[in-house]
Amino acid sequence: MSRCPKITLLAGGVGGAKAAEGLASSHYRWNLQIIGNVADDQEFHGLWVSPDIDTLTYSLADLIDRQHGWGLRGDSSNTLHCLERLGAETWMQLGDMDFATHIFRTEQRRLGRRPTEIATQIAKRLGVEIPLLLPTDDRVQTRIGTDRGWLSFQEYFVRERCAPQVLEVRFDGIEQARPTAEALAAIRDAELILIAPSNPIVSIGPILATPGIRDAISRSDAYCIAISPLIGGKTVKGPADRMMSSLGYQSDLLGIAELYHGLIDALVIDRQDQPHQAALESLGLAVSVTDTLMSQPQQKQALMEHCVEFALAQQDRSAA
Ligand code: GDP
Ligand code: CA
Question: How far is the CA of 49 from the centre of ligand 2 (A)?
Fold first, then answer.
């Protein structure tokens, strides 16, 4: 592997964006591509909203509202208030400036442009140099089967605040979805594949479930390393731990290892989870134990540099 390896990062929303920012501020940014998640997308007020892709784009453009971890900094809610006055459902927070992104995306889709090209254009226009790729241009929608019936991902996550018990998860449209040539090439050409500390079921899950993608990763010669989204067995934010246990996985590092079985060579875990190290190593995984909480920019960069350097060192060892 070269010293500035070709890196492909698989990323969801908030956890994905932290990893993306960490790599983007390191010298590894020159050979970096990111594959995002489109299965959280949903139409609101006639507009196509792509929350995970927007979170990645706004974060990398340093336009993100850092307090929320989503939306544009300094945005206002006049449009939403006016929609509410008209009787529209307004539980999905969409800011006035943010609406511009959704209007532009929707219009471009209506004109028949590929979602990948639209995402690339939005990212470039907002100043993001790193290629932000979609796993598929087709429509894939996460559906959450709960004790309160089937919900779209945003209904579950935003409207119901993850309160319902998750019984089942499916990705509507996934069987027919075709992977994009860009995503397949990014995997094929990568020397290092990184899986961000994103929700393994609903953020990384739909990327891997896109026909051809999981296969391409397991066939690739790239070293594949995942960063655990669990710290001390718990998510930093969001429902990943509860989702894992209600879907029958162990809601700890062993569950993460199971979900990424056959894909990853190594797992980066937090110091708090060190007791799991030996069990993970006995599964044949290389394990690196470090601080994995990324609150400050320096922590994002330090963790991501650590991951790349660990992967390079592991490769050197196996080559020796
Ligand atoms: P979403 O699409 O916005 O829900 O975001 P992701 O799926 O990309 O990320 C959600 C996951 O990120 C959660 O499971 C969190 O535990 C994890 N996460 C968030 N911040 C951090 C962090 O600083 N360190 C680690 N290790 N995981 C994090
Ligand atoms: Ca998401």
Answer: 12
Beta-carbon-side half-sphere exposure of residue 27 (alpha carbons within 13 Å): 3
Q: What is the pLDDT of residues 278-288, one digit of tens each?
A: 999 999 999 99
Q: What is the spatial distance between Cα 233 and Cα 209, in angstroms, rounded to a whole number?
A: 25
Q: Domain spanning 7-138+173-319 has what CATH number?
A: 3.40.50.10680
| CA 197 to ligand 1 center in whole angstroms | 5
* Closest C-alpha residue for ligand 1 atom 2: 13
Percent of the chain with pLDDT over 90: 97
Cα radius of gyration rounded to whole Å, the chain: 19
Q: How far is CA 47 from the centre of its chain?
A: 22
Per-residue confidence (pLDDT) for residue 2, from 0 to 100: 64
135-145 residue pLDDT tens: 999 999 999 99
Residues with CB under 6 A from ligand 1: 12-16, 18, 52, 55, 197-199, 203, 227-229, 231, 235-238, 240, 292-294
Bridge partners of residue 128, in order along the sequence: none
Spatial contact of 43 and 32, defined as CB atoms under 8 Å apart: no
Model pTM above 0.90: yes
Distances (CA, A) of 114 to 107, 110, 130: 12, 10, 19
Helix H, strand E, coil C: the string for 246-258 is HCCCCCCHHHHHH
Which residues make up the CATH 3.40.50.10680 domain(s) of the chain?
7-138+173-319
C-alpha distances out from residue 214 to 67, 172, 289, Å: 34, 17, 26
Residue owning tokens 């990327």? 207
